[in-house]
Q: What sequence folds into this?
């Protein structure tokens, strides 16, 4: 494997050299970085032009100047921009902003796409399958800038207006309840009697929950509370165990329940003491501690087959800890929304943060999330379609294989056939799509960042092209190219991990 990685890296380096050289030459001849100075009426115009020529080595032909840029790149220096700013500093701010946006959006799009695609494959030719297909292709065909404008209007402006008096009207309540009932009915399937029962129960449950939340004005000052947390934690323990190990695996179920009970017991100490005055390093440390403690509980209950037991405990522990953190965030929602900087308009339409907001770790976190909501949804809606369709097609292809029919003939449960046999092999083509999309999403966030006012990689690239500023454009190209190469290498290694028949040699 080591020799394979070395060979791929060497080949990738030569590809990057050729690509960067071509990009450098094309960008250099696409515009004049002295254009603004030549049109200036400044009395020392010639002196400014001479200074910029010297600063950017513009007196050297581009096909030779590239090697000067390459030499600085080997030293970790991306050069100076037209405005005499270090590109390294510009790149650091831009890549932090873009990766914050792209990472969250990509992870959510992958998770939602896989879940919906799998359910769609298992309910092939059902109403749910047809509805998902329609929605997926609809989102895939929509231009991102138009989606962004719609999100600003209906996802921010009107939602902010509604939050002034967060009461759900009766017609909207009934519509949401019916849609939820139809959704669960199509997912669960079965006979028509079973479907009608699911429709009625889920519609009534949704309407009752939303009615209580509306009557108590929960959306103005949200919280989870110990009772709801306990119900959700126990439900997560059963649900995760059913998916990961099966409810017949009592060790996994007991480990998940023990982890959930521990999370419930730690709710008040965490909310009252552990999470007060917290900062990001301590928050990340508690997250790692959650994984370790949950894994230890799973190991203690494990027995002979510890893998599924440990995974059940870890997933349960992480989700329960996430609910506790979410409750802490919610406790600061009213203070954030009514602050002098936000002024009752918490869903932001532009920028990555509220200027001059201040506040503690939780207030800053809410501010980040409210600025992330709209651009994240925009990217998810575009990426969701491809992940859903590929995961559906891949799983359907695997389910028709001989070894799946053999597994079912042996009497294995549907969960075991899907999770342990089909899903793993269905991930192979999806891994390829994800590897290609990561670099494309980083580079393709140009429109999203422009519409929502994020000063990220896309903004750096567009601003550089507009004034023929070579160094920022090349910094963008090197980062996106390196990411594409890296994730394609990771995809090759994952092939061998997912399918033992594939040898990396």
A:
């Amino acid at each position: 494997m080591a020799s394979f990685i070395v060979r791929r890296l060497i080949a990738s380096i030569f590809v990057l050299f050729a690509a960067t050289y071509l990009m450098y030459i094309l960008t250099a001849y696409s515009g004049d970085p002295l254009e603004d100075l030549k049109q200036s009426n400044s009395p020392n115009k010639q002196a400014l032009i001479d200074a910029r020529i010297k600063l950017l080595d513009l007196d050297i032909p581009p096909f030779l100047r590239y090697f000067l840029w390459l030499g600085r790149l080997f030293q970790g220096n991306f050069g100076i921009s037209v405005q005499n700013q270090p590109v390294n500093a510009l790149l650091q701010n831009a890549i932090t902003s873009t990766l914050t946006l792209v990472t969250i959006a990509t992870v959510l799009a992958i998770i939602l796409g896989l879940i919906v695609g799998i359910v769609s494959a298992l309910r092939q030719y059902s109403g749910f399958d047809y509805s998902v297909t329609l929605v997926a292709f609809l989102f895939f065909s929509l231009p991102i800038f138009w989606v962004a404008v719609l999100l600003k209007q209906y996802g921010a402006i009107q939602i902010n207006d509604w939050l002034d008096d967060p009461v759900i009207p009766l017609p909207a309540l009934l519509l949401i309840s019916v849609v939820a009932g139809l959704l669960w009915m199509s997912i669960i399937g079965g006979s028509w009697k079973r479907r009608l029962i699911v429709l009625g129960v889920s519609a009534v449950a949704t309407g009752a929950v939303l009615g209580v939340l509306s009557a108590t004005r929960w959306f103005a000052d949200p919280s989870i509370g110990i009772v709801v947390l306990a119900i959700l934690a126990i439900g997560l323990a059963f649900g995760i165990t059913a998916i990961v190990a099966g409810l017949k695996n009592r060790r996994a179920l007991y480990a998940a329940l023990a982890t959930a009970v521990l999370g419930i017991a730690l709710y008040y100490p965490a909310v009252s003491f552990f999470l007060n005055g917290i900062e990001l390093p301590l928050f990340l440390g508690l997250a790692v501690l959650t994984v370790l403690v949950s894994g230890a509980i799973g190991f203690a209950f494990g027995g002979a087959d510890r893998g599924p037991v440990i995974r059940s405990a870890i997933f349960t522990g992480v989700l329960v800890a996430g609910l506790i953190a979410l409750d802490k965030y919610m406790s600061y929602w009213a203070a954030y929304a009514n602050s002098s900087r936000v002024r009752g308009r918490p869903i932001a339409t532009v920028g990555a943060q509220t200027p001059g907001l201040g506040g503690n770790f939780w207030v800053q976190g809410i501010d980040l999330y409210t600025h992330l909501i709209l651009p994240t949804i925009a990217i998810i809606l575009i990426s969701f379609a491809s992940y859903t369709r590929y995961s559906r097609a891949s799983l359907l292809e695997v389910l028709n294989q001989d070894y799946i029919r053999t597994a079912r003939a042996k009497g294995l449960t549907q969960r075991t056939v899907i999770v342990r046999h089909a899903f793993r092999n269905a991930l192979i083509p999806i891994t390829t799509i994800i590897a290609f999309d990561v670099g494309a999403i980083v580079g393709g966030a140009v429109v999203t960042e422009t519409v929502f006012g994020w000063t990220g990689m896309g903004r750096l690239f567009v601003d550089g092209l507009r004034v023929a500023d070579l160094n920022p454009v090349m910094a963008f190209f090197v980062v996106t190219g390196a990411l594409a190469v890296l994730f394609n290498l990771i995809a090759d290694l994952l092939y061998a991990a997912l399918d033992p028949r594939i040898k990396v040699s």
